[in-house]
Amino acid sequence: SRAWGISDRSHIVGWAMPPGETVFRGSLYGNSHFIQLELLAWTTHECVGWEVNMATQVVGSVQKYDGNYRWYPFFWQDANGNGSNDIGEMITLGNLGTNGFFGSALDINNGGQVVGGSDVTSYDPKQTRHAFLINPDGGTWFRDTNGDQLNDLMIDIGTLGGDWAEAWDINESGSIVGYSTLSDNTTTNAFLWENGAMTNLNDFIPTNSG
């Protein structure tokens, strides 16, 4: 088992492998109560809970096998308040590309904004993954108005010039931090994203400081 996130209400999320199973499931623990998180509509999958906010809304990644193993970012909340995981309470949030093999929601703030990383292209040696932000609209985290299987609420916040980036945390002001490759697709630097602009935090490290 692993614990990955904790809220100020001491709710803890992560993953655990149930007895007798060979896959791991998402987990939520709080108020002396344990909830196993999984996408009940899928039968062959694994699940990881990455973070939980003060409203006990959980985000993470869930796997589906459809001939290929694909990971999707998810959002979960106990909509009916019964203290268990029920059908429809976990939803996938889509990926930035329709054929992407990987997407993960890595943090959610108390306003419900979700950040993470998602493939933009299908899996190949030049796979492209970008950092994303989801701004929920009226209690909705996924919307597909044109039927292209992409989330209209998912914003591609880009990279620092390379092909790879993930957003790892977002605060209550909507400032986002993460990491990204540079244009050489080898060097990895930290970034701060605010008001539509991504800043390379390594630029603030004094030259020759070690």
Q: Regions with pLDDT < 50 over 5+ consecutive residues?
A: none
Largest sheet: 4 strands, antiparallel
Question: Average pLDDT across residues?
Answer: 91
Number of strands: 16
Radius of gyration: 17 Å
Structural class: mainly beta
| Assembly context of the chains | single chain
Residues in helix, %: under 10%
Strand order of the largest sheet: 1-2-3-4
Overall 3D shape: globular
Q: Name the beta content range.
A: 35-45%
N-C termini distance: 36 Å
List the secondary-structure elements in sequence, H or E. Answer: EEEEEEEEEEEEEEEE
Helix count? 0
Could you explain the architecture of this structure?
The chain has strands at 2-6, 12-16, 25-30, 33-37, 47-52, 58-65, 69-76, 90-92, 103-108, 114-119, 129-134, 154-158, 165-170, 176-181, 188-194, 197-200. With 210 residues, the protein is mainly β. Strands 1-2-3-4 form a four-stranded antiparallel sheet, with no helix packed on it. A four-stranded antiparallel sheet has the order 5-6-7-8, with no helix packed on it. The protein has a four-stranded antiparallel sheet with strand order 9-10-11-12, with no helix packed on it. A hairpin with a 3-residue loop joins strand 6 (58-65) and strand 7. The radius of gyration is 17 Å and the shape is globular. The model has no long low-confidence stretch (mean pLDDT 91).
